[in-house]
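Exercise 7. Given the encoded structure of a 307-residue chain, write a plausible sequence.
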């Protein structure tokens, strides 16, 4: 791993303690960190508490009560809340509280490669023009600008991470195939970039170990590929027959699903390798899906030991 953070006595707080934050928090807990964060789900709050994560309910409609309490002692802050038309809710409701943190060493904002919009299949890097074609992408651009404004105006140690399509155990093409929901849409020349959650975690850890406030990083694997290729490989791993290939023009898709096909770009990841020293665990979807299947099988084997 390129960079590790192992100093006990550090505290991570995640606004929006979701899938990626969960994996990061697990690694930091093993290193002796205190980990806390927010969720909108009371049941998840209870589950996080059982795992030693101090959780707070935050529904994005009103600020958290007593911010000094929940942010007390925070050294590292990760923002993963979904943005809306007003930008990022954590920024809008708690930006001033965050600026008041005395021990804050690092802030990460999890953005999306949707900020780039459509580049006709060309490769994009962190300096490429942002031309979002979706509301989702436009909201992310605004949220990035909000957090970076605090870096420029007040020196907040902000880092932006533009994530490609996230997948990992329990959240991959394997799951959609098993559920019978996978479809193979063929749009020639179109490609998606992806990133395994374990590689997101190692990028974040590398950045935390080597802070560079104000920097922006693309977080994607080496292999931008068509989605139907990924589904076909998932079927191969599971010993199942792939669903038929459907031409894009004939596919019956919800507007949200179709919007993902509007943008066509390939994400360069040179910066995380050169600036952070990252060597991807899963540089393509094949190695990533194989790892997902192995992790799921290990989990099944471990659970069977208790039966």
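Solution.
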């Amino acid at each position: 791993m390129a960079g590790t953070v192992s100093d006990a006595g550090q505290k991570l707080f995640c606004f929006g303690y979701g899938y990626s934050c969960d994996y990061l928090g697990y690694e930091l807990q093993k290193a002796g960190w205190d980990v806390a964060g927010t969720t909108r789900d009371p049941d998840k709050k209870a589950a996080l508490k059982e795992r030693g994560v101090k959780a707070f309910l935050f529904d994005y409609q009103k600020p958290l009560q007593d911010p000094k309490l929940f942010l007390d002692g925070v050294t590292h802050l990760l923002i993963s809340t979904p943005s809306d038309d007003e930008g990022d809710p954590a920024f809008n409701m708690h930006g001033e509280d965050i600026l008041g943190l005395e021990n804050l060493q690092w802030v990460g904002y999890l953005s999306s490669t949707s900020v780039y919009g459509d580049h006709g299949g060309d490769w994009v890097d962190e300096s490429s023009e942002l031309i979002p074609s979706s509301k989702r992408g436009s909201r992310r651009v605004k949220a990035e600008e909000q957090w970076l404004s605090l870096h420029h105006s007040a020196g907040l140690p902000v880092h932006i991470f533009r994530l490609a399509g996230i997948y990992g155990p329990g959240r991959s093409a394997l799951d959609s195939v098993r559920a019978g929901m996978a479809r193979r849409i063929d749009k020639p020349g179109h490609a998606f970039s992806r990133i395994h959650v374990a590689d997101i975690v190692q990028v974040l850890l590398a950045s935390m170990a080597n802070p560079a406030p104000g920097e922006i990083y693309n977080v994607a694997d080496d292999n931008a590929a068509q989605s139907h290729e990924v589904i076909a490989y998932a079927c191969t791993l599971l010993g199942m027959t792939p669903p038929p290939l459907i031409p894009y023009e004939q596919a019956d898709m919800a507007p949200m699903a179709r919007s993902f096909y509007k943008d066509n770009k390939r994400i360069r990841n040179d910066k995380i390798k050169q600036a952070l020293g990252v060597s991807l665990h899963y540089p393509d979807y094949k190695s990533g899906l194989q790892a997902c299947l192995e992790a799921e099988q290990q989990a099944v084997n471990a659970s069977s030991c208790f039966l």
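Remark. Residues 50 and 147 are 32 Å apart (CA to CA). Students should compare their own answers with the one above.
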